[in-house]
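User: I want to check something. If I give you two sequences, will you return the structure for each one separately, not as a complex?

Assistant: Yes, each is folded on its own. Here is the first sequence with its structure:
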Amino acid sequence: MKKTLIIAEAGVNHNGQMDLAFRLIDAAVKAGADYVKFQTWNSESVISKYTPKAEYQKESTDANESMLEMERKLELPFENFLILKEYCYGKGIGFMSTPFDIGSAIFLYSIGIDIIKIPSGEITNLPLLEIISEFTCPIILSTGMCEMHEIEAAINILQRKGKKDITLLHCNSSYPTPMQDVNLRAMQTLKEYFKLPVGLSDHTLGVEVPIAAVAMGAEVIEKHLTLSRKMEGPDHKASIEPDEFAYMVKCIRNIELALGNGVKQVTDSERKNMAIVRKSIVASRKISRGETFTPDNITVKRPGTGISPMKWYEVLATKAKRDFDEDELIEL
């Protein structure tokens, strides 16, 4: 099976502080993630001064400040992402960041980012999609808050230049997502309808949903990582802590192994048990030489080192060529 790409979404959980960003990268490396992902934007370019906060943001940050004021505190300057990229590469983990405006997208592409991730909120941002359609790197597209026709429209824009390397992430953009709204089967619907690789951007509490998604065919898992859910900030409460993230990665890798190749056959690990667990035809009482084998003097018992019970009718009506004790394996 193809290895699942696991993205640790650091997002804005650095709270605008580079030392926290470095610690998030270290935590992602230790947990076994393939990539750590941040978010890149210019606050004045993406948020008007009249934009209210989402309810979940009001609950975890100062309810009296505007979204613009909050985002200014969380924003990192472009040059910091070069530093974070080099730090990631030095630690042996991939670097990603999500652009929320055209300037950020062009900047990230210019520094040689491996993959561009388009967030759910930008799926109807036609100018941004057109710019990204010019890029040659792979694209991951989140689909939270979307109807199928909106996803199709975004894909059509991104593919105008012939781009084929697009992965769709099923997503629910509620922080945290209630279990009844996850709808993992929608991920499979996306795969069947658009004929593209799929994955999950998960905002539930806990790790069972992304693990289940891998079992259902997810090729990418994105999950928010925080150093502590008790920290102040908009996304911490809907994130998981380093130990939980490491446990999720371990479970996903185990699921990958467990899914196997789909061929039903005896495995090496179980082959040694066959002789013990299967059964053979044995004498149910003492049998004398020349006596005919019948259901009255033979039966089926372990071990499976003798004649298979599947040859029961081949044994019946033949004669014993020697004496047999009770429970002795029958030989013809």
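And separately, the second sequence with its own structure:
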Amino acid sequence: AEIDVRIEGLQGDELDNVRQRLSIAAAADRTDLDDALVQRLHEQAANDIESALQPFGYYNAEIESGELRKTGDDWSVSYRVKPGPPTLIAKLDISVEGDGHEFADIQTALTNLPLKTGTRLLHTQYEAAKALLLNAAYQAGFLDVKFETNELRVNTEAQNADITLKLQTGPRYFFGPITLELDKLDHDNVMRYVTLKEGAPFSPRQVLETQFALSDLNYFDTVEIEPHRDQTQDGRIPITIRTSLRKNARYQFGAGYGTDTGVRGVIGAEFRRINDYGHKVLTDLRLSQIKNTVSGEYRIPVGDKATDNLSFTTGYTQEEIADADSRKISIGTALYRTPGFWQRRLYLDFAREYSTISNVTSRVDLLMPGITLSHSTLDDPIYARLGWSTFLDLHGARNDIVSDVTFVQWRGILRGVV
């Protein structure tokens, strides 16, 4: 059965919320529809519309219900709505008590609350204000924070509202002793990626950042961080970090066919930890009818970020096209670091290439130092809907320093999602 519901007098979020809360609008999905049920839902519609408008500050809406009509198995009905004047915030009484009442982040949250006297009452802003205060205190280490008073009083006749919020922060907590449980990896080497510091204020954000940092190393299958609140002493909470290792080796196999390459295949391997210090080896072999490549990389972790490493690479490429063929041998080293928000790569590559065209063979040597900078700001690193990223690369060679030619090359890429 179809139920055609028309709503007049509303638009935007108010209209969307009314449609979601209106029982008769959602009744078409029910299997037990009959005349009595639809009539009962129609009589309930005014209450549904009133309650759906209250979160937007409209407590005195006028609702005119049209006639419920039935044609065959289907119904139709319309509702005309006059929201009326909005309810305004007349009084705000917001205070913070406890050890965190003068804490800077909490005071900043107080000054940035979306609630203002004389403005329309919006329940979303009221809930956002409570969440902002709670989160500011919780992230600062006040784990027992709570509202002792949490009142929203609405005078529907005067069309105004009074809000009273009294936040009790309780004591501030700090990180206690940190225990890292792991196998087959050097303890001190892994600890440098742990951002938690004994004696520092307890921060749930720091706990999450440490969990992400350890997971990004690609050594562990699981990373669990457990604060022991029941073992707290002098406000210090002991922390246990438990890890379980991933399989050491990962292999990749693939095959395909392309009109420009013919039959092709790939074999790759990654050895995530070849020693206690987490050194990695990556190999890759790609074969086709016109081009074959083999490459290898030895990666040494450095610094305190998962992206920071010292890399040594080597490779060989052989390609045949018509009456020409080429062979290229390359070696290189690169240092990846992340100072601030930019990822930086300093590298030095050497390549020797042999080319044969019409039975004439030539050789070119290139020693190329370079630098790469990259940065991204995205709302979601996997399914980005808003943000931007940039990539910059500069490298070159001189014919009097190992190389046979002199050149400078730069490349830039800027991408945006809006």
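Because they were folded independently, the notes below concern the second chain alone. The chain has a mean pLDDT of 93. The helical segments are 12-21, 23-26, 35-53, 104-111, 123-139, 187-191, 204-215.
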